[in-house]
Amino acid sequence: MHAKDLICLSDKSTKGDVSSLLPICLSTIRQLYTIDHNPTKYGPSFIGGHMWYFDSGAFRHATGQRNILFDYVVRVEGFVTLVDKRRLPIMGYGRMTNGEHVIKNVRYVEGLPFNLFSSSQFCDGGYLVKQFILGSNGEDGDEDGNVVLRTRKNGHLYTMMFYAVPQQVEAVVMLAEATKEESGLWHQRVSHQNFRYRNKLVSKHLAKGLSETRQSKDNLCSACEKGKMKRSSHPLKMETNCHNPLDMLHMDLCEPMRVESLARKKYMLVLVDEYSQYTWLEFLRAKSDAIDLIIAFIKRIQVLLGRQVKRLRSDNGTKFCNAKLRSFLEEVGINHNFSAVCTPQQNGVIERKNCTLFEAARSMMAHSGVPPSLWAEAVSTACFT
User: Fold this and answer.
1) What distance in Å separates the CA atoms of residue 366 and residue 354, rounded to the nearest whole number?
2) 169: Cβ–Cβ under 8 A, 6 or more apart, which residues?
3) What are the residues whose beta carbons fall under 8 Å from the beta carbon of 44, sequence distance 6 or more?
4) Which of 147, 255, 273, 371 is 20 to 30 A from 310 in CA distance terms?
């Protein structure tokens, strides 16, 4: 009986002589191609099933079978180069099961004809690789009972057969995964709004084809993490004194953007009706255009809605503390309120609206990779989605 007939992979609680650990030098891909360049010759029970090769040369567990992974994350990480110089892309990673054990961080390599079990990644997880000499009765001599995997030498290779979860459990996993991907797609369609609004679409049946499963806020979107970083939120206003549209309009002129829009605009005027929370956007080339635009907007919206604007609220910047605007507001009987200097909390409606619009715009742009000059289109999409 040879010393290399059996290798046992034990958990980190295993006790014993560490000197029994022996290096294993395999070149699985090369040897498999040496056996036969056409691996499909061995049939689905050999390749299409869950036969895995214990490989000390692989840095990560790798498989070409996407269907055996769950909790799958799409992440293109590079390429794997085979002996025949082919480069196979690493498309993402996930988890897989072997009976009751869960194997994490298994890379999905598109087109890889073999399943590779990395001894390096296994040991990095705190496990031990021990080599036993089989006894005359065929036992490996493991007295601790801590062996989690066994691999036997099969020709020049060490192979293991993994068994996936039962079929009914696998169906639930795939359903949950599909729901998560679908939720992510709807999250993008509604301008990366938070999942509370997505769940509202579900509960009120406002979108056809949307899954009934409610999405948890714990499922973070990487683009939202980049686009929505901010300071702590202002305290919410518990009551409003507005009972009709146009009772109170909040407005703010956003400072010039670093990049001009496609229409060569650098400023953005935001107006919010406190009663309905309806929002209007106007883009400007120069700060001096704001006053004429505000006057024209008030005249137009009063005609469209058949109501009188009663109050305006803004900061006390020079773009609003203007004799021309003051004269117009006094003429039509509109009261203009100002927030205190350096106190944006007093105009929290417009401040939160600006935050929401720019968070959604940054998230969409980070996700799609569009140039910065499309910021106006991104903000408009966020506003009117």
Assistant:
1) 18
2) none
3) none
4) 255
Tell me how far the alpha carbon of residue 220 is from its chain's centroid: 5
Residue 12 amino acid letter: K
Q: What is the pTM of this model?
A: 0.43
| pLDDT score for 95 | 87
Burial class (CB in 10 A: 0-12, 13-18, 19+), 100: exposed
Residue 215: predicted pLDDT: 58
Confidence at residue 44, expressed as pLDDT on a 0 to 100 scale: 33
Q: What are the start-end ranges of the E strands in 110-247?
A: 115-118, 128-132, 147-154, 157-161
CATH 3.30.1330.10 for domain 248-384, yes or no, is no
- Token pair 């400007």 is at which residue? 284
DSSP letter at 68 equals G
Among candidate residues 254, 341, 253, the one with its CA nearest the CA of residue 291: 253
148 three-class SS: strand
- Structural domain boundaries of the chain? 6-161, 169-219, 248-384
Grouped pLDDT means (10 residues each) for the chain, 385 residues: 44 36 32 36 41 80 86 83 84 82 87 84 75 55 61 76 54 43 70 74 66 59 76 60 91 91 94 94 94 95 94 89 92 92 82 91 92 95 89
Q: Give the per-residue pLDDT at 171.
A: 40
Here the tokens at position 213 are 């499963």
Helix axes 290-305, 323-332, angle to 10 degrees: 20
Give the 3-state secondary structure percentages of the chain, helix then strand then coil, rounded to 5.
35, 25, 40
Specify the pairing of strand 311-314 against strand 335-338: parallel
The structure tokens listed for 117 are 């079990």
